[in-house]
Amino acid sequence: MESSCPKIVIIGGGAGGLELATQLGHKLGRKNKAQIVLVDKNRTHIWKPLLHEVATGSLDADLDGVVYSAHAAKHGYQFQLGTFCGLDADNKSVKVAPITDETGNVLLPERQIHYDTLVIAIGSVSNDFNTPGVKDHCFFLDSHQQANRFHHALLDSFTRVHQSESINELNIAIVGGGATGVELSAELYHVTDLLKIYGLSKMTKDKLNIHLIEAGPRILPALPERIAMSARRELSKLGVNVMENTRISEANASGFVTSDGKLIEANLMLWAAGVKAPDFIKNIELFELNRANQIMVKANLRSSTNDDIFVIGDCCACQQADGSFVPPRAQSAHQMAQCVEQNILHDLKGEALESYNYVDHGSLVNLSRFSTVGSLMGNLTKNSMFIEGKIARFVYISLYRMHQKAIHGSFKTLALWLAEKVLRVVRPRMKLH
C-alpha cells in the first residue's frame, strides 16, 4: 500500500463502529484508496441490545458473536486488539494500552497508532451516579464479558435453589427501568421456565422474585407512556415487582437500600440505571463534553474541537434543533455510521460534508416470548403508531437483521438465519455452562 494512502482509524467495534469499518473496507480498503483500521479491546462483537439474552443464556456469545479478525480479513479492513487509553491530537496518534495475559505478563507493550482521520465509537458504560457499594456488589451489562459473569452467577443460583432442601427462592433486584432492565426481567422468567427441560425442575418460576427498581415515576421513561404502561402490565402478569419512584442510596451484600432506609433483599443485583461515556475521556482534555461525558460534535459529527476526529454512537453528544441530544440507541449509531461513511468519502474528494439528521423510526421493547410492544415511525407519527404482539416481535427481530446485513451482506445474513433455525434443533434452548 502506498505511503500516501490515508489512514482511517476507528476506535470501538460496537454497532456503529463495526458497520462503519465494514462499509469503508468495501469502498476504500479493498480498492487501496485508504487504510482502514478498527481497534477494539475485545476479540468479538455482540450487538449490545442482545446482551440481556447473553446474561440469561438465551444467546451464546461464543457461537453468535462476530470475530473481528476473521471479519476484517473478508471485508477489507484491519483489526488491532487493544484498549484505547490516550490521544495525541497534535501528532495525530492514539495510544493503546499494553496487552497482558491472565498472569499479568506483557504480550504487547503500549503502542501508538497514527491516523489521518479518527472515528471515536467507544460506546457507553453504566452510570452508577457514585452510589455507594454499587461497584462492589452489582453486575453490569456493558459488555459480553460482564453478561457472561452474570450468566454464570445465575446458573449457580439456579443450581443452589434446585439442589437445596432449605432455599426456596431466588431474589434478583434490577435497578433501572429502561429497556435493558425491562427486557432482562422478562427474559429471566423465560429461561426459568425452561429449566424443567434440563433437569432443574425444582427451580420453578414461582420461586423467582424479581424486583425492577426505577427512580422515576414510570419505567421506560424515554419511551411513550402507552408503551411503558403496556410493558408494566405484562411484567406484572409475569410476577415482576415493579417499584417506581424508588431511589437507591446504597448497595451492600444483602441488597439495595432505598432512600427511605428500606432494604430490598437480593441474591443477585444488577445495575442498569443510565449510561455515560467512559470516564477516561475526561483525562484526554481535548474534547468538549456534556454531563454524561459524551463528546460534543458539530452537525457533521466532527468533534466540536477537532476536524480530524468524528464521533458516533453512545459516546456522541449530538444536539438536535429542539435542544435535546440524540438518544443512545442502536438506530442512532447505525444512522451516524452511515453519515460519517458518506462524510469521509466526501472529505477524501474535497467535497462539502453533510449534516446528520436523526430519524426516529420508533421504539420497541421485547419481553422475551411473552410479548413485544412499541411504536413505529416516531418522527412521522409522534410515536402514536402503537404495535404489539407478533407484528412487533417481527419488527424487533428485523432491526437485528438490518445490523447483520450492514456487516455481513444480504446473502450471509440469510445463511445465518437458516443456520440459526438448524441450530435450534440440535442445541439446547439456553446456554447451560
Give descriptors for this structure.
433 residues; alpha/beta; 6-stranded mixed β-sheet; 4-stranded parallel β-sheet; 13 helices; 35% helix; globular
Q: Can you put this structure into words, describing what you see?
A:
This protein is α/β, with parallel strands linked by helices and 433 residues long. 35% of the residues lie in helices and 24% in strands. It contains 13 helices and 27 strands. The chain has a six-stranded mixed sheet with strand order 5-2-1-11-23-22. Strand 22 (302-303) and strand 23 form a beta hairpin. Helix 1 runs parallel beside helix 10, helix 1 runs parallel beside helix 12 and helix 12 crosses helix 13 (410-426). The termini are far apart.
- Strand order, main sheet: write it out: 5-2-1-11-23-22
Helix content: 25-40%
Q: First CA to last CA: what distance?
A: 45 Å
Which structural category do the helix and sheet elements fall into? alpha/beta
State the low-pLDDT regions, or none.
377-381
